[in-house]
Amino acid sequence: MNKRRLLAVLIAFVLTIAATAMWSASTIQREGDPDAIVLEDSGSEAGVDQPKKKGGNKVVKVLAAPFKLFGKMFGGGDEQNKVYRMREKDAQRFESAGVEKIEDARHQGTKRDTSSASAQEHLEAGREYLLEGNYNDAISELSMATSLDPKLTEAHNLLGVAYDKKGFTDRARDSFERAVKMTEDADTLNNLGFSLYQNGNYRAAVDRLKRAARLAPTDERILNNLGLAYCRLGKIDEAYKAFARATGPLNGNLNTAKMLERFGREDDAIRYYEAARTIDPNNTLALRRLADLYQRVGRAMESEAAKSALALASNNSANSTGK
């Protein structure tokens, strides 16, 4: 009986931790470009292109976290999975060609054997570290790869991705520029373009992203990044065209409206939300934002009408789901 009671307590504890983790995952402030995050939250791809990890389902990871916690509590855990902050001087050290030992909190006194590793092997190791989210070691391996073979384009590109993830935007841009000088493919041009965008160099960003879009005319990430850069230049019609090419007219209007709302251009945002509603009269996002924006600009009657339409659309959606 005592064992059953203990098991029940443990299960309840696991479920509580899982629920808390899911809430935290959805509410914690996220790192990255704020504009790109707005698009990503609506299901649109934006930002730097990077290797995709198979089986990377966030919900599964969140639910698995409590069980990993129990493993650490009762089995000691794995120090390799801890997250450590890398400083600027760490990045400088990683770039030196003769690096054989990584002096950080995880590898005190540990010497990596690089005597027989090729540039390609360092590249593959760096890619794996990048996929795991281990950006410190990714930078170390990819820096070694570029030192052994300065013409290894992919290593420069992935090194830029790793620097971007660590917040070293200047170093990321430098790595992307080296990659583009050797090979102007769509991915490297996109990454360089987005890096320039993050540094506020919007005209240069548009130039690189337009070149990327010519090489990959249907790439959603590239087109959305181009739309973001156009927004920052104030070229809203061009931004809409890029967003619409990426995911269609409905999302094109919604994404343009979201950006205009971020810039405080409420009347212009209303115009694009209204265009989205014309395409999909029951679009709950458009109705919700219109109800709020109409109220802000003093169009109370239209706000109430939007609220009524939203309630009806939500009710119809709930009824159709329940059937």
Key words describing this protein structure:
Serine Threonine Protein Phosphatase 5, Tetratricopeptide repeat, mainly alpha, 16 helices, single chain, 72% helix, 323 residues, globular
In the CATH hierarchy, what is the class of the domain at 248-316? Mainly Alpha
The 3D shape can be described as globular
- C-alpha end-to-end distance: 43 Å
Mean pLDDT: 76
Q: What is the assigned CATH homologous superfamily of the domain at 248-316?
A: Tetratricopeptide repeat domain
Contiguous helical run count: 16
Biggest β-sheet: count, sense, barrel? none
Strand content: under 5%
The string of secondary-structure elements, in order, is HHHHHHHHHHHHHHHH
CATH topology type of the domain at 248-316 = Serine Threonine Protein Phosphatase 5, Tetratricopeptide repeat
Q: Poorly predicted ranges (pLDDT <50, ≥5 residues)?
A: 14-29, 54-90, 93-112
